[in-house]
Amino acid sequence: MTTTHCPYCALQCAMHVDPTPDGRWAVRPAEFPTNKGGLCRKGWTAGELLTSQERLTAPLVRPRRGAPLEPTDWDTALETVGTRLADLQAQYGPNAVAVFGGGGLTNEKCYLLGKFARLALGTSRIDYNGRFCMSSAAAAGLRAFGLDRGLPFPVTDLAGAQTVLLAGANPAETMPPLMQHLNRSRLIVVDPRRTPTAERAVASGGLHLAPRPGTDTALALGLLHAAHAQRLVDRTYIAARTTGFEQAWSHAAEWWPEQVEHVTGVPADLVREAAQALGSAAAEGGAYVLTGRGTEQHASGTDTATAWINLALALGLPGREGRGYGCLTGQGNGQGGREHGQKADQLPGYRRIDDPESRRIVSEVWGTDPDALPPAGDSAYELLASLGEADGPRALLLFGSNPAVSAPHASHVRERLSATELLVVADCVLSETAGMADVVFPVAQWAEETGTMTNLEGRVLLRNQVAPPPDGVRTDLHVLAGLAHHLGQPTERFPTDADEVLAELRAVTAGAPADYSGVTRERLEAGASLHWPAPAEGTSHPRLFVEEFAHPDGRARFVPVAHHPPSETPDAQFPLVLTTGRAMGHYQSGAQTRRIEELSRAEPDAYVEVHPDTAATYGLLQDDWARLVSRRGAMLARVRTRTAIRRDTVFVPFHFGGAQTANDLTNPALDPTSRMPEFKTAAVRLGPASPPNGDNPRPRQLDSVADPSICEQGRNHSGARDDRR
Ligand SMILES: Nc1nc2c(c(=O)[nH]1)N[C@H]1C(S)=C(S)[C@@H](COP(=O)(O)OP(=O)(O)OC[C@H]3O[C@@H](n4cnc5c(=O)[nH]c(N)nc54)[C@H](O)[C@@H]3O)O[C@H]1N2
Ligand SMILES: Nc1nc2c(c(=O)[nH]1)N[C@H]1C(S)=C(S)[C@@H](COP(=O)(O)OP(=O)(O)OC[C@H]3O[C@@H](n4cnc5c(=O)[nH]c(N)nc54)[C@H](O)[C@@H]3O)O[C@H]1N2
Ligand code: SF4
Ligand SMILES: [Mo]
């Protein structure tokens, strides 16, 4: 038996993985503070990834565009790529090659990928999928607190809260075991849909506020207004610990609850009631404000996250015991992934790439000249959209992401991926993006190697190897080392041993905002709880901002923000608001979970959640196939009618590819600060369609959600699945 952590989300539930007599792997939950012995359905079935028939076990090379991929040996694949990269750079300069990473990669991989881009390629063009995930909350947190760590407190703190406001987060489906920490709290859920999380709120005496997608800033400003009117604003805290309240308040002053109702659709009385519930809990028993992607993934997401932070600050929550503000990070290493240098503007340790001192420190450890380090590059969508353009990258190296499905305006992104001269993908399976590549490196995954991950609480943990990688498979670190060798780099600069990489990460992050200099495998194996900053000397920091915030004056900053409507609003041609997100049974682009039989059987197709009256208006009934069309493209999805979704809004999950790609509809409008795309609002129309590829109608789905918020703790696995939809 080996104990490790889940391959998927940021909760990083602990699990035991045991071999079964028939040569497979069985997963059981392990005790850990975040999951308290629970796992969701994806965790329970994760063992299947290790023996999947769909694993890639040999490098693949496409002899020419249009020809099928063919297996080859590692030396040939590495040499082919190394030579092509060197040629393209010799001809067009270092920026001819771009790199794209992922927040699911271990800290060691993220670090080495950033180093590879800056040092071996000398390119400024590196960014990663975390830009699509956390970037708005991160930007808002940085400007308010001077430091961004998703949750600046352990999740176990939430258990003591009287009231928790969840804005645009659906943890009952996206992190089910987290709900155990919210069992005793009154929940206020802000979501256009009556999600299982919202259901839980209402069932246990809380509130569900269902704003029109893209209007959260108005709602947050209105809640501040109402709290102010009810004298629930914490003047003592504001005076002692913050700056800028008056300017921020000047924007909230105009947001009377009736005005909020007009813009968001949330009844004015409900706004007052929510402000009362949150504000009085803040004063008496403790309250938290938590944000998720629903409120953040907008072209004004940074300001919206800021509006929630302003509300939290006005109520005196951040940096106090039993109170707080946090953002629920998403990917397994969503936190570490944004700290160690795969983001366009960052060097390891959450250092800024435009800071001369940071450049000096990093280049010293790397044995290079600070001037040799490239400047900041373009953000994820901009990078993908510039592929093959006149001044854009000619080649792309991609690790740990499937943007052909998950990037906004994905049809355009696929076109740009095809416009490269060389597309190289490292993946464990032939994802939609890998299927387009010229060269595919088959890499080890999850429990086939050891590495560190940083979960949603900033806790660094050890993801242990359970099984060796299959024959023919190498690790991402080996791929980077192999390519670096062909690019003329000295071997010692690109170690293939994760512990060696971690040692370098310790050295380079010493004294940085995300200080990992005290993170060692020995300490993690001994069970130490290491929340960064974890300096070599002294303790780690489960709770940040208790004494002071990270700005030079020690104070948090209110940043004044105004409400802006979404980039695209409905009109006669596209009368409905589309929003997108997640279903419990699939992960992200679905590259992994669609290959797990139990999961794909339970959720085989994209669906569109729509109010039955709205569906009827467009001639649609439960289980019909529908076609959704936006200004960018179209997709097919099965109708799932729900009475508890707004009549003007439809929802689709983005876990499916081909004709069911939700991102063929989404709008790549970008937030001016974070460069986050507007995944959560687009204008669409809806109509009947024939099934994709002659697909036959299946038995009707139930029009009710079995409460998937209950994590499957201590339950027989097969028993637990039977009561799902
Ligand atoms: N099952 C599952 N779990 C996952 C993942 C997965 O793919 N599948 N991915 C992981 C990752 S990377 C992430 S980032 C997290 C994301 O976790 P969440 O943020 O919880 O997930 P989402 O479904 O993207 O969005 C949450 C909710 O936002 C709502 N929403 C849409 N538009 C708006 C709006 O304008 N305002 C408000 N207030 N709400 C809105 C949606 O209806 C949705 O219920 O989940 C992680 N966990
Ligand atoms: N419409 C819409 N689009 C969205 C979102 C949304 O809410 N709505 N959410 C956005 C968010 S929050 C996110 S995080 C992104 C995520 O979207 P993606 O970046 O596409 O994430 P994944 O689907 O997890 O892709 C990870 C890929 O890496 C592979 N992989 C797994 N482990 C490893 C490894 O160790 N090494 C390598 N090299 N590969 C590995 C997997 O097989 C998979 O193909 O999607 C974004 N897109
Ligand atoms: S909530 Fe589910 S997907 Fe996330 S870490 Fe736990 S078991 Fe894995
Ligand atoms: Mo994410």
UniProtKB/TrEMBL annotation:
Location of region: Disordered: 330-351, 679-725
Database matches in InterPro entries: Asp_de-COase-like_dom_sf, MoPterin_dinucl-bd_dom, Mopterin_OxRdtase, Mopterin_OxRdtase_4Fe-4S_dom, Prok_molybdopt-oxidoreductase
Gene3D superfamilies associated with the record: 2.40.40.20, 3.40.50.740, ADC-like domains, Dimethylsulfoxide Reductase, domain 2
UniProt superkingdom: Bacteria
SMART domains assigned to the protein according to its UniProt record, in alphabetical order: Molybdop_Fe4S4
Transmembrane segments: none
Residue span(s) of domain 4Fe-4S Mo/W bis-MGD-type: 1-52
Keywords: 4Fe-4S, Iron, Iron-sulfur, Metal-binding
Pfam families found in the cross-reference section: Molybdop_Fe4S4 (PF04879), Molybdopterin (PF00384), Molydop_binding (PF01568)
Coiled-coil annotated spans: none
Protein name: Molybdopterin oxidoreductase family protein
